Amino acid sequence: MTIPNSLARAAQNAVDTSALLREAPRPGTKQKAQLRRYEVSALLKNGEVSQTRHIAPALPVFEDAFCAFTRGSLVETEHGPVAIEDLMPGDTVLTQTGASEKVLWKGSVTLVPGRVDSRGRTRPLTRIMADTFGMQKPLSGVIAGPAARLLATPAHLRHLGGGQPMLTPVAEFQDGMSVIETQPPTPVELFHICLERHAVINVDGLQFETYHPGVNAVRMMSHSLRSIYLNLFAHIHSLHDFGPLLMARAGEGEIDAITA
């Protein structure tokens, strides 16, 4: 009996990830690193969709690949809005330019936003009220994950971009009224997607970026962690395969990446 490529790859991912985790350094502490379960769907070169489950570190550089959109978020496609949980690799979405681009990868993770982890962190969500960014932007209330970035610039960061458009973390827009922080005490499923190249897509009437690790990702991970991280993405072989950023990204009071 022949094992399907997707199942064979899933088994290999499980073996590789377990081995790499045993090698991953735990600097400064004897406490075991907190791990998280990540669900991944990826479009393979033969056209099949691989669905795998990974156990990997609960570190921001990993979680950011999964924590942008909550279940029920509507992504604009050429056939109309599609819930993020129903979108699959091989489907197409509309980008900011009006082009229809293929989804190559979708990741999801379930976490409790209000629960404090071993490092004392929480992962709060951001609720955006209807019409916050203009008429029907969004059409109704939106709850975005901590890794979501909007194509917009809040007043306190406008000096950074020189008038150029920037992709900004949703948390930077929190004002306590129309954009507020929320930390549910119950599990929340979050998603993110990759296209062939970094892009801006319409989700619930707002312009969000697709996933890209950023130009500083290489310096943020040790060799062992980088191997575990890349194992989450069946459609790439190195960080350079994500391609260039579409535009500058801002956050924490400064620009963290600018395209050439």
UniProtKB/TrEMBL annotation:
Chain ranges of the Hedgehog/Intein (Hint) domain: 67-214
InterPro entries: Hedgehog/Intein_dom (IPR028992), Hint_dom_sf (IPR036844)
Superkingdom assignment: Bacteria
Protein name according to UniProt: Hedgehog/Intein (Hint) domain-containing protein
